[in-house]
Automatic annotation (TrEMBL), chains A, B:
Keywords from the UniProt entry: DNA-binding, Repressor, Transcription, Transcription regulation
CDD domains assigned to the protein according to its UniProt record, in alphabetical order: HTH_LacI, PBP1_sucrose_transcription_regulator
SMART domains: HTH_LACI
Superkingdom of origin: Bacteria
Entry protein name: LacI family DNA-binding transcriptional regulator
PROSITE patterns: HTH_LACI_2
Pfam family for this entry, one: Peripla_BP_3
Domain HTH lacI-type: 1-55
The species this protein was found in: Brachybacterium huguangmaarense
A GO molecular-function descriptor: DNA binding
Amino acid sequence: MKQVAEQAGVSISTVSHVVNKSPDARIGDEARSRVEAAVQELGYRPNPIAKNLVKGRSNLIGLVSDSIASTPFAGQIVHGAQDEAWKRGFVLLIANTEGNAEVEAQAITMMRGYNVRGILYSTWNHRGTRLPAGLADVDRVLVNCFAEGEPAPAVVPDELGGGLEAARMLLAAGHRRLAFINTTSPSPAREGRLAGLRAALREVGAAESDLLVLDARPEQEGGYAAAEEVVRWGATGVFCHNDRVAMGLYDALRERGMRIPEEVSIVGFDNQEVIAGHLRPPLSTVALPHYELGVRGIRALLGLEPVPPTGVLTVPCPPVPRDSVAPPGSASPRAAA
Amino acid sequence: MKQVAEQAGVSISTVSHVVNKSPDARIGDEARSRVEAAVQELGYRPNPIAKNLVKGRSNLIGLVSDSIASTPFAGQIVHGAQDEAWKRGFVLLIANTEGNAEVEAQAITMMRGYNVRGILYSTWNHRGTRLPAGLADVDRVLVNCFAEGEPAPAVVPDELGGGLEAARMLLAAGHRRLAFINTTSPSPAREGRLAGLRAALREVGAAESDLLVLDARPEQEGGYAAAEEVVRWGATGVFCHNDRVAMGLYDALRERGMRIPEEVSIVGFDNQEVIAGHLRPPLSTVALPHYELGVRGIRALLGLEPVPPTGVLTVPCPPVPRDSVAPPGSASPRAAA
């Protein structure tokens, strides 16, 4: 800036007014032209570090993620957060901790050192967590997790609503003999989706005695292993804890020569991109709103979105109907024979 | 720092020496204790922005990615880059452009404004690209892509070597009647994997006339649709352009009552986490080394890894043998009947 001022023959503050387009400054047209020419010639770029240091603020927002790579989900949170941050003139400073507490503490210290506007703290799976010490006295929003014990604003998926939507797809097609292959891991997803399923049964007055609930490993292998009990139970509609479980169930039912959806209708959860739409038949499922969680997290941090008094904002999990649900007993006589 | 100096009754430069642990400074034990007590009491944190501004450098490295969310792959590049950057005392400033040229230009300007040590420019799929204007005069390394026209250091997967490894798995089991379901999209992956397959045929003196090469959409639907021609050709071993294609081929062969690997052996590519190890049988494949690309990109940027005179460093794609390859004709007589 000093060089620009010297070359243009003006003061440094004049350069600053021109470069920063200060609305109140009275700069003559000629001086302005000389500054602009010098800026061009010297390739001067305003330095946001210096600017932030002077103004005591930055256009950075920190995003601490416990896993950016292990699942496609964390990437969607980053994507949504970044789109919304850019829209508001902010840039994300991202740190991936892979759950390492030391890396996490360092990342938060570093972000605070860069004077971030605030910090989003996100986890790849929806869960309760302890608020890291470094986030106690800074603007922060938890994304896909919530603070246990202490209050902190949080944005999480509506697991109960998602379970309700999943079950409604089966019930609306007429299924009453149902199985739910849930996960073995205690989590808001496990409890919430089951509660949603039960609420859906109550909506239509269906008997809980016609529901089989199983716990299985939340991967293809879990769905495959659960098939035997599901078939023995005579379920015509199966809600799977996630799309990977549904994929394993598809394999097991096909090995038994059973057709989907004619003999068994199946609904998944997650809407996992590389799987759900590409099974045969394409899987009806419920989407986890990770992109939206990132967007809402930024909005809550910037005060653009009110967080309810509970401190927790829930984001809907929308149904994604495809071709794995049909009315019960829709197998043709030839196939059933 | 001024407040710390006042409270401790020392000069600002003494505070600086103590805080920065300057090796050459001679500070009395008593003054040092007073400074440390004041730092503690006032909760002083050194400000890296101010420090960088003074020293004219930062501990930031920029990472521009064209897609962090659309595939699980970009996340692995970020993960590898971040692990290596942290190890070297650097932090990643990540921008996700989703291929938007304006966002990309803004991101690069912003990163340069923050005085980054250098910039990694990465793409989710391996391809040639034009070097963005903002990267012309800054330390930069391309990751998973290479500059067309102008020279720039690049780190990319060894597609040819990967194709060689994939084909060797089938050839080593004794297969000679082969099919390759390649992709329809022209790319280094398409050309490289085919060249590797041909090199593998030459290694064992196999005839090219026993190889069927098909182009298909690089998703499950492409593999499913290709099955008919593969079966008509009588291939006993099939190399698929990626794991998603292999998954579609599995579905189509099973519908025909054919068994994998007893009747048809299959090899994929990518080692896509949510699919490859969870098919029935688990898929033998070749891994795309995205994590390693991120690590090597940082190392090349920091001058810790020599980049060959071609400007392009290739990273091996290692084979991941599982259970989808067996010798031809290993179906039991009962099953064949």
